Amino acid sequence: MTAMAPEQQAISRQQVEDFLYAEAALLDAWQLDDWLLLFDEDAKYEVPCNDAPDGDPSCDLLLIDDNYMRLTARVARLNSRRAHREYPHSRTNHQVFNVRVLDVSAGDISVTASFTVWRFRAGRSSCYVGLYRYRLRCGDGGFRVALKRAELDMTDLRSVADVAIIL
Amino acid sequence: MSTGIETRRTPEAEVPPQLPIVDDDPISQRFRVHRSAMTSPHIHRAEIERIFAKSWLYVGHESEIPEPGDFVRRPVGGRPVFMVRGVKTGNVNVFHNTCTHRGALVCRQDSGNSKVFQCFYHAWTFDSEGQLKGVPDRDAYAGGVNFDELGLKRVARVESYRGFVFASFDPEIEDLPSYLAGAKDYIDLVVDGCGGSVEMVRGTNQYSFSANWKLLVENSFDGYHAESTHDTYFKYLVSIGTDLRGGVSGREVDLGNGHAVIEYSSPWGRPVAKWEPLFGEEARTEIERLRADLVARHGEERAHAMTEVNRNLLIYPNLIINDIMAVTVRTLYPPAPDAVDVTAWALAPTNEPAPLRHRRLDSFLTFLGPGGFATPDDLEALESCQQGFASGGVEWNDISRGMGRVPMANDEEQMRAFWRRWQGQMGAAADLAGAQ
Q1: Facing residue for B206 by CB, picked from A60, A74, A156
Q2: Distance set, CA B350 to CA B198, B292, B347 (Å)
Q3: Closest chain A CA to residue B347
Q4: Quick one: which of B425, B416, B321, B338 has its CA closest to B55?
């Protein structure tokens, strides 16, 4: 067994789950400014295309490939009254399960989880299903997000139209 | 319902509509479209028969199937077909995706490489040129069945232009170059601007929404809506240091046969080849080099058109090539009057160096696609229009903008070119009395 730093040894799945549930709650409450505070300034938020879930943002087309600057702009956009697709906001319900802590040895903590995100607006319901991949870091006040990637299981976006909400 | 005995009717031979759905009044400089064009099931059925069955429709790009046996399958004009590069000939074949025996799909993967296509139902097997090669227990058939005639059925017409593969279900349709008319030059500008050879980037946007397909045609080259609908996008540009003062200015051109384009300068950058702060300081030299190469090859005037000028191009009826902050190719089909299926790709120079490709994709995602800062708001606008139609009370959409002047990029002449062709193809079916 390889030696681990004490703070890494201490990480339990339950801690990670608590963090992911808290993140989901911020999204569902549309507290996007607070949600953004969970991310490090070199963080990425990625959503690959349905037909290329392994898509690499440097050479493949993704649906979303935000660095921190564009993620900040996305939050500002969604907070404004001019993001017409999301004004008024959808009601969302971010559900997280099958949380697995894969690797805590390389500095960042690799986590995968299944998600179901329900979105309700103007009489319409949409459901996004897929796999989250996170890289988390241990900070002073808890975990920080270095990467959040949402890989969709639906074969296309025909039933949900777009990805205007944050998954 | 087909009777099996169909007489070909040409729109020209028809009695023109008494109450045209497209009300084109050049004297009073007013152009209106009756909203039943977007809501009527009769109109929708007529569109499938008269437009989608009688036009050249985009299938895919040759770069998607570079090697013998490479294939992609997708619906074209609402019908499942697949495109495969023949192993023997190297030709691009487009087949109806149905077994000639009892009907099952013979190509059941979205993409891949295969020498043969076997129907899993009774194991009839076809090669990449469509020939029927295998029939289990062939001796059971009497002489009346000619297996040589039971190869995969080709779509009636298939031609390509600069790698863009089109098919038509109408065997009598004019050849593709004549059909494309003035749009050819604009495809040339896009492809030559990319160094003469282009490819589709991996990753497809397939989305649908609840509005009439023609609203998306209009929206795809509507300069007038940009500032009001896409305020959050322009704010983002400002936040990263883009200078908006130049604004959007340019013109629109009717390219014949329903094709049209708007071409204009813009504040945003272009991977080929207009620098902006989003691209980073380190990109300046590379972008200047790209531009200089194009000037050397094509001269200053054409290089200017390739590098600094944006193009939103409609190839009638349902292909849009937008060469803007990146190049997107988008095709659409209406499964119902109030529904549209969109499939979109990013087009890029073949073998584009990695840093340039990354920058291009980054630029694409600021505005385009179902997760971009603009496309979702367009969907909202178009669904909002469709919902507004249901309110009734107002019968006509107004598309007169710019009729009294040389049309500018934020006028509506390009939409009028589309609608005039639509009316011509619909013929007597574009009559208000029949639509309601």
Answers
A1: A156
A2: 5, 19, 9
A3: A61
A4: B425
Q: Which two three-digit tokens encode residue B207?
A: 């989305």
- Walk along chain B (436 residues) and give the pLDDT tens digit of each residue: 344 444 444 444 566 778 899 999 999 999 999 999 999 999 999 999 999 999 999 999 999 999 999 999 999 999 999 999 999 999 999 999 999 999 999 999 999 999 999 999 999 999 999 999 999 999 999 889 999 999 999 999 999 999 999 999 999 999 999 999 999 999 999 999 999 999 999 999 999 999 999 999 999 999 999 889 999 989 888 888 888 887 788 999 999 999 999 999 988 999 998 998 888 888 899 999 999 999 999 999 999 999 999 999 999 999 999 999 999 999 999 999 999 999 999 999 999 999 999 999 999 998 999 999 999 999 999 999 999 999 999 999 999 999 999 988 899 999 999 999 999 999 999 999 877 6
Q: Is A74–B373 a contact, with Cβ atoms under 8 angstroms apart? A: yes
Instruction: Closest CB to B202: pick one of A55, A70, A85.
Output: A55
Q: What is the pTM of this model?
A: 0.94
Helix pair angle (B354-367, B284-307), 10° resolution: 60
Query: Which of B43, B38, B44, B45 has the alpha carbon at shortest distance from B392?
Result: B38
8 A C-beta contact, residue A50 and residue B206: yes
Token duo for residue B152: 């995969």
In this structure, how many other beta carbons lie within 10 angstroms of the beta carbon of residue A38?
A: 19
Closest by Cα among B140, B57, B145 to B132: B145
Order of all β-strands in the sheet with B57-61: B57-61, B164-168, B157-161
Residue of A nearest to B363 (CA): A65
Nearest to B360 by CA among B272, B241, B247: B272
Look at strands B22-25 and B30-34 and give their pairing. antiparallel
A117 in contact with B at a CB cutoff of 8 Å? Answer: no
Shortest CA distance from B346: residue in chain A = A61
How far apart CA A132 and CA A115 sit, in angstroms, is 7
Return the closest-CA partner of residue A163 out of B370, B232, B380.
Answer: B370
Contact criterion met (CB below 8 Å) for B191 and B302: no
- DSSP per-residue codes, A10-33: T--HHHHHHHHHHHHHHHHTT-HH
Burial class (CB in 10 A: 0-12, 13-18, 19+), B2: exposed
What sign has the CA pseudo-torsion B375, B378, B383, B386?
A: negative
Is it true that the peptide bond before B317 is cis, omega within 30 degrees of 0? yes
> In the structure encoding, which two tokens stand for residue B157, read together?
């017409």
How high is the ipTM of this complex?
0.93
Is B137 exposed, middle or buried (CB count within 10 Å of its CB: 0-12, 13-18, 19+)?
exposed
Question: Looking at beta carbons, which residues of chain A come within 8 Å of B208?
Answer: 157-159, 161
